[in-house]
Amino acid sequence: MFLRSILAWLSCLLVGVAACAADKHGTTYATPQAAQADPDFAIQGEYTGDNVGVQVIALGKHQFRAVKFHGGLPGAGWDGSEKTIAEGTWDDVKANVEGLKRIERRSPTLEAKPAEGAIVLFDGTQPTFEQHWSKNSKMTDDGLLQQGATSTDTFNDFSLHFEFRLPYLPEARGQGRGNSGLYLQGRYEVQLLDSFGLKGADNECGGIYQAAAPSINMCLPPLVWQTYDIDFTAAKFDDAGKKISNAIATVKHNGVVIHDKLEIPRGTPGGTINSESATPGPFFLQNHGNPVVYRNIWVVKR
């Protein structure tokens, strides 16, 4: 184990310290290249066969959870029946994937081109970064937007395309595992979290925090690029400032509808705007200290 740890650290040094760091949650791998230092990363992922799908989650220190879905993977055949879960070392759980093929799913909207009339908020270039994001926002050397950014543009009704990549933290659990959030209007949070293989709660990936769980957990494995495509209608207010209708959102996660015309009854704590009103608001990408990155962000005002 000691030799393996030394080799992993040396691998981290080769890919860059910023891409691979350790803290109370264990080692954080910010890029697929850095994650190659952990042999468990090559095992984690999705497996499929005839009428069955399995998600294998790395839990750190060579422990795994295998979640078996009858009919196929979530969004790709799963019949919604009870899942079968096994945990242990790879030797303990590998029987669950025998005869299955390991696959890497890709969102059908990944790298989608901006729609006609779209405002390109971020395309990996310095001009879009400087024009559309606040001065405290940051961009990586390889052209990715970092957590903690706030758009300078504000919006009411819109259609948004948004791509994100969650880090790999095999030893972390719950809200410590790749946490961020996409705040619509700076008010309503669509959760970002490594929820691969989990239940799919309102505080997991795709959840509208404290308001609604996703209808299906479409979270792909960490370090895979994922998409949100969101149609949003702002809350409406009368002349006296009284709310007369809730905000409404339809959210697709990796191309699958997880919220369909959902009414959002209230704002989410932790945003840049603490109250609902008729005033348009920005996009805010929450910073929980995890290296979550974003790209290809564009929006059409409606």
Total count of domains: 3
Radius of gyration: 20 Å
In the CATH hierarchy, what is the architecture of the largest domain at level 2? Sandwich
Can you give the mean pLDDT?
Answer: 93
Q: What is the makeup of the main sheet?
A: 7 strands, antiparallel
Q: What sort of overall outline do the alpha carbons produce when their principal axes are compared?
A: globular
Listing every helix as H and every strand as E from the N terminus to the C terminus, the arrangement reads: HEEHEEEEHEEHEEEEEEEEEEE
Assembly state of the chains shown: single chain
Rounded to the nearest angstrom, the distance between the terminal CA atoms is: 56 Å
The low-confidence runs, each spanning 5 or more residues with pLDDT under 50, are: 1-9
CATH topology of the largest domain: Jelly Rolls
CATH class of the largest domain: Mainly Beta
Portion in beta strands? 25-35%
CATH superfamily of the largest domain: Exo-inulinase, domain 1
- The number of distinct β-strands equals 19
Helical segment count: 4
The secondary-structure class comes to mainly beta
Helical content class: under 10%
Draw up the topology in text:
Layout: H1 2-15, E1 20-23, E2 26-29, H2 32-35, E3 45-49, E4 52-60, E5 63-70, E6 84-89, H3 90-93, E7 101-103, E8 119-122, H4 126-132, E9 145-146, E10 158-165, E11 180-184, E12 188-192, E13 226-233, E14 236-237, E15 243-245, E16 247-253, E17 256-264, E18 284-285, E19 293-301
Antiparallel strand pairs: 1-2, 3-4, 3-7, 4-5, 5-6, 8-19, 9-19, 10-13, 10-19, 11-12, 11-18, 13-16, 14-15, 16-17
